[in-house]
Amino acid sequence: MDLSSLTPQKDTVVTKLIDPRDGSPLKHDKKEMWIERYLPHTAEYKQAQYKRTQKYLKAAQKAKNTDVDIDLYEAEQDRVEVMAETTVAWQIYYGGEWVEFTPETAKDIYTKAFWIVEQLQEEENSADVFTKV
Asked: Rounded to two decimals, what is the model's pTM?
């Protein structure tokens, strides 16, 4: 076996959004809504993740204590920020318009439409990174 066949063959995954109420594809004007994100093995994803880890390490060093409480609300906000910062592109209809992607807009929408984060996480967890695009 050639080990190169066990190295990631793609760096992003596309999540087609589904209606959390009934599981139907989300569309507007017959266009499907989707979000493309970097996968965890990429440098872009790791950079977003490490930025949060660094914040907690600095807090622990400042407290000079290994018993540092992590605010769960803040941790959830970190998760949303990582999702936003690792988004590459999207096709989203929100607030009566097709929204142009920016990390700031993604953070706002992922916070308000919280169910999107769960769908993105599920797709990330099940992504087949070893299959060529």
From this structure: 0.83
